[in-house]
Amino acid sequence: MNWRRGFLLATIHFVIAASLISWEELPYYRQEHVSRTGIAAYLMTVAWQEEPEMPNFDPCDGGFVDYFTTPAERIVQLANLPVWSLVQWRIPCPSRWTLAGALHAKSHLEPLQEDFALASILCILVPIQWFLIGGIPLLRPRWWWSEPGAVITIYAAVAIALIPLMDPYGTVGFAAEFPMLVALLAWLWWLGLFIWKVLQSGWRIAAVRRAPHLS
Q1: Structure pTM?
Q2: What is the spatial distance between Cα 25 and Cα 89, in angstroms, rounded to a whole number?
């Protein structure tokens, strides 16, 4: 176990995730504050009127939601794929088994409050994830940068530097997305190693239990 390396990766990814999440969230909070301040006086003048009954329509239930994922959101997603898949921060229609789906179904929070809660949970889970990945490496290579965790960390940092170039309509937009494609492949590499280690452990446990019967 290498807890020093785990602490280093946890710190790096916490700084990256918290910075990008804050970058994405701050404009929404400012917009919401301006919107509520601007209509407060108008709402007070019509508060006496009876509110018309509006149909309860959920676009996620049989509907379709078209949304755009920003480069910063994609970096957070692909640099932290396991915990992000569990949380599904910034997904308009999350799966019911995720934290976002459970929070949307069982809470009465406003969308902005839900978003803040999910962002906070993700910021807590990211360093825990990387502390475990770094502290319990699945590989012990000769070079520190030749294992999945290091590859994901390096290419996430490179992707941050390329954010200004990540324009879907630009000539280099696709090339700028290349680091996150590498990060996705590294996660598949890590998953394969994890499955292999689990199978190895299962075989060893089965062999130990079988040994007394063979002797």
Answers
A1: 0.82
A2: 11
- The full length of the chain comes to 215
Write down the domain spans for the chain.
Answer: 3-34+64-208
| DSSP designation for 59 | T
- Burial environment of residue 131 by CB neighbours within 10 A (0 to 12, 13 to 18, 19 or more): buried
Q: Which two tokens stand for residue 97?
A: 């088994």
**Percent share of the chain, pLDDT over 70:** 76
115 Cβ contact partners less than 8 Å away, ≥ 6 residues apart: 25, 28, 89, 90
41 pLDDT above the threshold of 50 = no
Asked if residue 135 lies in contact with residue 54, where contact means CB atoms within 8 angstroms, the answer is: no
| Mean pLDDT in residue range 180-188 | 94
- The contacts found for 191-197 with CB under 8 angstroms, 24 or more apart, are 193/138, 193/139, 193/148, 194/138, 197/138
Radius of gyration of the chain (CA): 23
